[in-house]
């Protein structure tokens, strides 16, 4: 079966930056599984996989615009050190939650000077080319339920086995299988 919208894809992958540094990879025997065509993976990778079949290996170079976007200079800010009360030694690379008009944003410390601390709210991979090496393990048709939810259901349960009770998935019909708190508005309570 070829990868197309509504198929469930299992793949091994490695992700490197342009310097060849390994950023992320799937663990042996634990492929990444996703429902194709529902924006579950970054757009540049998803579009490059269309038409591939199990056993195929693909190298994909994804432009920033099709990956994590270009860095937004407005998300970089210099804040006074005294905003970090209770933090004994501030170091580049530390992560904090910043409260902004748009809600909490995860920021990284990118520079520490005497009284000035530069924090960056951009995704760490913003502005980077993403070099994926992918091997397709399996392609199957998604179930009606998976396509309706926009994500995969694994292990007979909902949401990767963690959402539905007793292995049952949430139902949009409001039947007895729904367990409280997990299925709202006919949706699935998982955060995928
Ligand atoms: Zn679900």
């Amino acid at each position: 079966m070829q990868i197309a919208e509504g198929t469930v894809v299992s793949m091994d992958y490695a992700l490197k930056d342009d310097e060849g540094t390994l950023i992320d990879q799937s663990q042996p025997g634990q492929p990444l599984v996703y429902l194709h065509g529902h924006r579950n993976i970054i757009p540049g990778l998803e579009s490059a996989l269309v038409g591939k079949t199990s056993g195929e290996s693909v190298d994909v170079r994804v432009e920033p615009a099709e990956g994590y976007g270009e860095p937004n200079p407005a998300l970089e800010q210099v804040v006074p050190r005294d905003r970090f009360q209770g933090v004994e030694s501030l170091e580049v690379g530390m992560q904090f939650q910043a409260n902004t008009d748009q809600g909490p944003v995860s920021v990284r410390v990118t520079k520490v000077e005497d009284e000035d601390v530069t924090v960056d709210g951009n995704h760490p991979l913003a502005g980077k080319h993403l070099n994926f090496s992918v091997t397709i393990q399996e392609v199957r048709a998604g179930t009606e339920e998976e396509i309706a939810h926009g994500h995969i259901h694994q292990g007979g349960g909902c949401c990767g086995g963690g959402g539905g009770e007793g292995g049952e998935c949430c139902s949009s019909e409001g039947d007895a299988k729904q367990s409280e708190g997990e299925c709202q508005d006919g949706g699935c309570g998982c955060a995928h």
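The chain has three domains: 1-70+128-152, 73-120, 154-192. The chain is about 5% helix and 30% strand.
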